[in-house]
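Table 4 source record.
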Amino acid sequence: MSRRLGLVAMALSLALLGGGRVAAHEVRPVFLDILETGPGRYDATWRVPVTNGMAPPVTPRLPADCITGGGLPQTGGGATVSRISLSCPGGLAGRTIVLDGLSRTMIDGLVRLQFASGEMATRLVHPARPTFTAPAASGPLDVLRTYVTLGIEHILTGYDHLLFVLALVLFVKRLRPLLLTASAFTVAHSITLSLAALGVIHVPPSLMEALIALSILMLAVELARAIDDPGRAAGLSPAGLAFAFGLLHGLGFASALSKIGLPAHEIPLSLLGFNLGVEIGQVAFILALLAGGYLARRLGPPRRRLAYRACTYAIGSLAAFWTIERVLAF
């Protein structure tokens, strides 16, 4: 039995390690930010994320009659940034911008156009349709919808956050305490996400990433101890644990949001939208786990116990790997 358990845990760990190295916190779209400075004149910033020293080959293609100018791209903060000046006769309203090369990637594009009046149009552009048609203007719901989508994408592709939520579900088991624990996690990461996004607090991203991995490892250790000694779990407050570590995970969400950027005139709304998106994705993941747990009841106690052990050791193995990797990256 122990040999089978080891093989299962190893398989799960290797599968997660294969995707976990690059996927944690990856919701970094290419970003075209355009500011209207006068009739037909714009200043634009083009930002492309750099992963493992490489940037995706995506470039914005503007209307043919637009005259562009700008300096050389600069790399820093995990992205390559280009400053572009535009002169477009008649303006950009109703015109189409194409993100060339996006269809050959697995990332999204974010295009934001701020008019001289202060109104703003924000769109999330997908690889299947890499175009943005500039409207005359857009309302607050446009910004809210875009950042809700970004929040959902972030939580569902942030494997370290999902692994922590999985560990919480395994640790709590019962529905009512689970709801309380999930609520505590939500309140906590909402606090630090808001404070960090507004610039009130700042933690170096490398330190934050390492501490998040360590929080998963610590929870996995408690899970492993509770297998043979269930009374240990009774002495811990899952809600308190979730709140404490949720403060840390909120900094991770804020780090991703800072790379996306917040519209200057819609900061509260975009922050609310991103937070709502994170919660929608988190609730969807918990519901999927509960459905899986319901199906697992048919396995019988011995197989359920084996599956629980395998998941626990897989979570701990991956968290240990992340912790070491991120500490060495300091």
